[in-house]
């Protein structure tokens, strides 16, 4: 079993490393790398089931090496014309896969930032007093969604109970929505979990939306499919594509189900304008000029 002493011994190999001669330094670095590998969980082991990522495929490793070697930002087309186009092509390939033929998307380093962006977009679309705004999340939602709401200044964060099967309790949801309506609050966001990190369960999307329709409420519907997004590559893809076409945004984490190197997450939105408006509304003239193709901004 790994101990604190093992970690300390490994880290001590770096002490005074810059005072050594080059041969001694290289020898110490070699020992440090070998020690690091020996005390780090082996992701290539079939027993590596605890964490929500897998070993990267060779193409991903090579691509990761190339992108790190080039070390180019892709925030504008001028900085990296090829990588920018690669991102756009990937997004355009994924959109019809999840039922967003007219949508848009952006890659983020991890599902946490993708979830944060979805809450931010919901706040921007709602254009209501944050003090009167409410978001609903289930007990099995990823912690990043609640954290995102706090970052965006939303204090009314209400959790919906889940059943023993790990999905949203529809009766409790109906009670909460009714109370929100009675209190004259604005429900601006709801997160449907498509593959929870604990049980791998999928929320009953259609029944959830029926409740919102019953009370004439239209919150931003976000699909957290960071873990369960692999279904869009399965035989049941058409069924889940139909479900996600009812949502406003969805997050997929390719390091969880497609063996991409850490971290590879994408946020896709059904309405292209919500991302375009955010880019053009910000004061970034030093980056985004009028002669640029908005497609690659």
Question: Any overview of this molecule?
Answer:
Pfam families: Pyridoxal_deC. With 297 residues, the chain is an alpha/beta fold. The protein folds into two domains: 4-39, no CATH class; 66-280, Type I PLP-dependent aspartate aminotransferase-like (Major domain) (Aspartate Aminotransferase, domain 2), CATH 3.40.640.10. Helix content is 43%, strand content 13%. A seven-stranded mixed sheet has the order 1-7-6-5-4-2-3, sandwiched between helices. It is globular. The termini are far apart. The mean pLDDT is 88.
What features would you highlight for this structure?
297 residues; alpha/beta; Aspartate Aminotransferase, domain 2; 2 domains; 11 helices
Sheet having the most strands:
7 strands, mixed
Question: What top-tier CATH class of the largest domain fits best?
Answer: Alpha Beta
CATH architecture of the largest domain: 3-Layer(aba) Sandwich
Strand tally is 7
Helix proportion of residues, in percent? 40-55%
> What distance lies between the first and last C-alpha atoms, to the nearest angstrom?
49 Å
Counting helices, strands and paired strands, the structural category is: alpha/beta
* Beta-strand fraction estimate: 5-15%
* Tally of contiguous helical segments: 11
Low-confidence stretches: none
Strand order of the largest sheet: 1-7-6-5-4-2-3
The radius of gyration is: 22 Å
Provide mean pLDDT, rounded. 88
**Anisotropy-based shape:** globular
Estimate nothing, just give the exact number of structural domains.
Answer: 2
In quaternary terms, these chains amount to single chain
Q: What is the CATH topology of the largest domain?
A: Aspartate Aminotransferase, domain 2
CATH superfamily of the largest domain: Type I PLP-dependent aspartate aminotransferase-like (Major domain)
Order of helices and strands: HHHHEHEHEHEHEHEHEH
Cofactor: pyridoxal 5'-phosphate
Keywords: Decarboxylase, Lyase, Pyridoxal phosphate
GO biological process, one term: carboxylic acid metabolic process
Pfam families: Pyridoxal_deC
């Amino acid at each position: 079993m790994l101990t604190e002493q093992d970690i300390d011994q490994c880290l001590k190999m770096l002490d005074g490393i810059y005072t050594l001669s080059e041969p001694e330094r290289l020898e110490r670095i070699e020992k440090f790398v070998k020690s690091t590998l020996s005390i780090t969980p082996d992701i290539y082991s079939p027993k590596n089931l605890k964490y929500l990522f897998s070993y990267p495929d060779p193409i991903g490793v090579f691509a990761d090496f190339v992108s790190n070697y080039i070390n180019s930002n892709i925030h504008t087309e001028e900085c990296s014309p090829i990588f920018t186009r690669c991102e756009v092509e990937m997004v355009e390939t994924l959109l019809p896969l999840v039922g967003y033929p007219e949508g848009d998307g952006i890659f983020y380093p991890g599902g946490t930032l993708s979830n944060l962006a979805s809450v931010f977009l919901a706040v921007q679309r709602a254009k209501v007093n944050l003090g009167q705004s409410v978001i609903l999340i289930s007990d099995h939602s990823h912690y990043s969604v609640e954290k995102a709401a706090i970052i965006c200044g939303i204090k009314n964060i209400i959790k919906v109970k889940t059943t023993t099967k790990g999905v949203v309790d529809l009766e409790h949801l109906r009670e909460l929505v009714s109370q929100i309506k009675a209190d004259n609050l604005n429900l601006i966001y709801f997160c449907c979990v498509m593959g929870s990190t604990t049980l791998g369960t999928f929320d009953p999307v259609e029944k959830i939306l029926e409740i919102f329709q019953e009370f004439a409420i239209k919150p931003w519907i976000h699909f957290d499919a960071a873990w369960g997004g692999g279904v869009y590559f399965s035989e049941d893809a058409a069924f889940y594509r139909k479900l996600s076409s009812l949502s406003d945004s969805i997050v997929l984490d390719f390091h969880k189900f497609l063996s991409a190197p850490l971290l590879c997450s994408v946020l896709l939105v059904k309405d292209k304008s919500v991302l375009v408006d955010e880019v053009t509304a910000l004061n970034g003239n030093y980056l985004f000029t009028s002669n640029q193709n908005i497609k690659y901004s």
